Amino acid sequence: MTRRRWIAVTAGALVVGLILGAVIGRVVWPWSVGDDFWFAFWTGAPMAGILAIIAALIAFGPAYRSTRIAQENGAREQWWNRAQWALEMAASSRQSDREVANEALLALSAEATPMELAMITKTIAQLQDAGTEEGETLRTRQSISALRREIAAGAAEPISNREREQLELLRQEYERRFGKEAARRVMGRP
Question: pTM of the prediction?
Answer without folding.
Answer: 0.58
